[in-house]
Amino acid sequence: MKRALIYVCVSIAAACAVCCGPRRGGNNVAATDDEAARHEQGRVFLPALAPSMLSPEDKAAYLNEHYWDRFDFADTLFIAEADTAHMATAFAVYAGRYVPDSLASESMSRLMAKASESKRMFDYFMMLAEVVLHDPNSPLRNDELYIPVLEAALRSDLLDEYEKMPYEYDLDMALRNRVGRAATDFEYTSESGRSGRMYDIEADYLLIFVSNPGCPMCRDVREQIVASPMLNELIERGTLKVLVIYPDEDLEAWREHLSDYPSSWINAYDRGMTISKERLYDLKAIPSLYLLDADKRVMAKDCTDVEYIERAISAAEES
């Protein structure tokens, strides 16, 4: 229940981060009356306030650097008594609104350095980062922001070698198939038994759809793609191709659901489960979408947001 509440709060913060952008005039992060009352009790963190005379862009830049100025990183009693959902929301607002990918390494490294006042504080901020930036259920999942957090964990003297092991694994996966870089090639096999390689699929855009048969969320993503006029027009023109890949071994279940997908899509499975066994792609959450360009560079990584896929293609078409 606690984790579910955190995701509700993070989802609200994500909506504000994506839709609102930096607010014009006044304070960038406004406290509600309820928040102010709780702050009087000393258990709620309120972010720094940007000077009102700054432009929206300058306010965002100011809060990128000063958002946490009013947080006492030495106060471990605070994190013992604070509302974790509220803190996750604050972290989500910071990451979603004030940390562009271009400043990811600098910003997140600076934050984790501040959190290194004690092991307890460092562990707490590692938990916030994992919930907001790494968990598959988070709408703000972002490897580019999480990578510097993981790198800080592996550099830290506060963690022993056993505590670092999960972060080593997560960093290895996060560094694979990064946005803007070449995707990892793999072999796929169709119902007929014919094999092909992902890199041999020729199209301006390739949408890799990792899916399981009968998966409700996979069905939802499939229906969103089918319902998209933009994506279907691109598919009809041959500009976009969709490769549905089943990564597991129950081929009977896979064959029973072949008709769930349009015949114009490439429906295949991973013979030998190479993708999973060799950790070519991060498959801890299914469904998963990867959008690649004509050169097989990653445009969108491990997401389920079809509208984001549409926006990524539109931006590429306009550039």
Low-confidence stretches: 18-42
Averaged pLDDT: 88
The proportion of residues in beta strands is 5-15%
Helix content: 40-55%
The main β sheet shows up as: 7 strands, mixed
Give, in order, the helices and strands.
HHHHHHHHHEEEHHEHEHEEH
Quickly count the helices.
Answer: 14
Radius of gyration: 22 Å
For the largest sheet, list the strands in their spatial order: 2-1-5-4-3-6-7
Structural class estimated from helices and strands = alpha/beta
Give the N-to-C terminal Cα separation. Answer: 44 Å
Shape call: globular
Count the strands? 7
Task: Please give a handful of descriptors for the protein shown.
single chain; 319 residues; alpha/beta; 7-stranded mixed β-sheet; 7 strands; globular
Which helices and strands appear, and what pairs or packs with what?
Layout: H1 2-19, H2 33-40, H3 56-66, H4 76-81, H5 84-98, H6 104-114, H7 119-134, H8 143-155, H9 161-174, E1 187-190, E2 195-197, E3 205-210, H10 216-226, H11 229-237, E4 240-246, H12 251-256, E5 266-269, H13 274-277, E6 288-293, E7 298-303, H14 306-318
Parallel strand pairs: 3-4, 4-5
Antiparallel strand pairs: 1-2, 1-5, 3-6, 6-7
Structure characterization notes:
- There is one protein chain.
- By secondary structure, this protein is an alpha/beta fold.
- It is 49% helix and 11% strand.
- The chain has helices spanning 2-19, 33-40, 56-66, 76-81, 84-98, 104-114, 119-134, 143-155, 161-174, 216-226, 229-237, 251-256, 274-277, 306-318, and strands spanning 187-190, 195-197, 205-210, 240-246, 266-269, 288-293, 298-303.
- It has a 7-stranded mixed sheet, with helices on one face.
- Residues 18-42 have low confidence and may be disordered.
